[in-house]
Amino acid sequence: MALTAAPQASPLPLFTAQTRLLVVAPHPDDETIANGLLIQRVRAAGGAVRVLLLTDGDNNPWPQRWLERRWFIRAAERERWGRRRRAELEEALRRLDVPATALRSLGWPDMGVLDRLLQPGQRALAELAGVLDDFAPDLVALPALGDRHPDHGAAHVLVRMALAMRGRSPALLGYLIHGRDEGPLSPGETGTPAQQAAKRQALAAYATQLALSGGRMRQLAERPERHSSPATTSATVRCLPWRPSPLLWPRLRLSAASSSGLAQQWPWHAAPLRRDGQGGWQLAWPAARAGDACFVRLSLALPSPWIFDHWGWREV
């Protein structure tokens, strides 16, 4: 008989008028699908909510082709589409009782959050740190590290790096949209009938996304909202969770980021790896000092219409 993991207690704290919730949304609609009830609960308690939008969701070609009856999408059309999606988010927030002044938009390229993470100079971290310093949240809802959308996983790592560099330690609530839950699940929040209705109304603001994916989006939004506390580790052994076939090595890329603020990417053959004596690999990266959180991502450098990660990010 298969065993089912016991559900975890909810990681949500008691909300009060002093609660300051920051919701990190890589794209318009992430804040509603995974956090629509959470936002309403904080607002109902009198707490403050801020939504940090990383991209405008402008790299969204198939709905745009369908609704605009065009095949070729140039930079101007993408920019216009991004403005349309951001306007939908503003309307969704209004329906969740969040004022327009609560939105902060960084305008990063859609499908480009990983590039922001890997770029030299720590500009992305500085932008995130500015939002953290300005709002000073005590609660941050961010994409789960295991989310298989590359923008979502990279967003998790960037936020964790920015928090570590600023010495801030708000409670973290990871939310998963793309992929499957790993480990024990929290019971999930279903909200009151009124809150559920408001969340459905907020989702309805996203006409561009509902046009081709309405059934899938409604199914995602109707799930109980589950948030998990990201695991922390103090292990000094940097063992990777993957053992890829040597046949894949020429096409593999390994990315790593440290909470000290450094990030780098290598072809597999050039990555700082050593055997662990048990058939696996250890990360021998000087930037991954003992005591720092270290995040690693394995990816395959092959052109594909499939945008989601196969391996994704892990913390070691």
UniProtKB/TrEMBL annotation:
<dbReference type="Pfam" id="PF02585">
    <property type="entry name" value="PIG-L"/>
</dbReference>
<dbReference type="InterPro" id="IPR003737">
    <property type="entry name" value="GlcNAc_PI_deacetylase-related"/>
</dbReference>
<protein>
    <submittedName>
        <fullName>PIG-L family deacetylase</fullName>
    </submittedName>
</protein>
<dbReference type="InterPro" id="IPR024078">
    <property type="entry name" value="LmbE-like_dom_sf"/>
</dbReference>
